[in-house]
């Protein structure tokens, strides 16, 4: 469990203590953007590999235990989580890596719903599993992912504001939101499902179906109630 605790704190520290902070700006100035991206990628991959490995070997120490009643809710909520992640990864977005130049374009597709679709999908996924698994190791593992996802959105926003200038970023930020649908409900944007296309949602649904079918074989825990 000590390894998992250290891995969780390392994972959080790398993303919140470096990426999005002025320390990142200092490192970029010293070693260049390419050098920073390589170093950060290596550190991030190392941290996530350590985190996953430590989680996989951690003993199951129940807190509230696996909740069978939660499984139907988990199955339902994992669909929007997959849609946010898959559609987010395949949609041009000023908050994505090396896509800052898109900030002057009108938000389209999933960006109308949230400017951080991947992070919001990951956060939802983390909450679903944190609640449902109910053990110490899962609490640490998924809490680390949840913290990085939620705080990471604010970190990226701050980084983009510094890099793009207040006027350019604030205009984009006003028309979008971190919380899904908040900008739409607030009248700052409108929903246009047609802009999502068909293949992005289809890919998300396909990934979701594969997860349901393979979860027991890959993870070792069935997502279905009573199993």
Structural features, described:
This protein has helices spanning 2-17, 22-57, 71-89, 110-113, 117-133, 136-164, 166-175, 182-185, 199-218. The model has no long low-confidence stretch (mean pLDDT 93). It folds into two domains: 1-58; 61-218, no CATH class. The two termini are 27 Å apart. The protein is globular, with a radius of gyration of 19 Å. The chain is built from nine helices and no strands.
Task: List its traits.
single chain; 227 residues; mainly alpha; 9 helices; 68% helix
What is the count of DSSP helices, taking H or I runs of 4+ residues? 9
Instruction: Tell me the span between the first and last alpha carbons.
Output: 27 Å
Q: Structural class given helices, strands, pairing? A: mainly alpha
The number of domains is 2
Please state the average pLDDT score: 93
The total of beta strands comes to 0
Report the C-alpha radius of gyration, rounded: 19 Å
Helix content: 55-70%
The stretches of 5 or more residues where confidence is low (pLDDT under 50) are: none
Largest sheet geometry: none
Strand content: under 5%
Short description:
With 227 residues, the chain is mainly α. It is 68% helix and 0% strand. α6 (136-164) crosses α7.
């Amino acid at each position: 469990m000590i390894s998992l605790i250290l891995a969780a704190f390392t994972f959080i520290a790398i993303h919140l203590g470096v990426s999005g902070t002025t320390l990142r700006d200092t490192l970029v100035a010293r070693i260049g953007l390419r050098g920073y991206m390589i170093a950060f990628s290596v550190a991030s991959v190392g941290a996530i590999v350590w985190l996953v490995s430590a989680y996989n070997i951690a003993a199951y120490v129940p807190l509230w235990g696996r909740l069978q009643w939660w499984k139907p809710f988990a199955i339902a909520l994992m669909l929007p989580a997959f849609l946010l992640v898959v559609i987010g990864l395949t949609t041009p977005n000023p908050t994505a890596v090396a896509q800052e130049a898109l900030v002057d374009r009108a938000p389209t597709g999933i960006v109308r719903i949230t400017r951080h679709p991947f992070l919001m999908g990951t956060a939802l996924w983390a909450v679903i599993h944190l609640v449902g698994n109910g053990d110490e190791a899962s609490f640490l593992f998924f809490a680390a992912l949840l913290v990085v996802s939620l705080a990471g959105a604010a970190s990226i926003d701050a980084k983009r504001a510094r890099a793009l200038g207040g006027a350019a970023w604030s205009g984009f930020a006003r028309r979008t939101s971190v919380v899904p649908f908040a900008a739409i409900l607030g009248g700052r944007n409108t929903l246009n499902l047609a802009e999502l296309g068909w293949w992005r949602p289809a890919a998300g649904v396909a990934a979701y179906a594969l997860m349901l079918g393979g979860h027991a074989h890959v993870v070792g825990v069935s997502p279905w109630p009573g199993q």
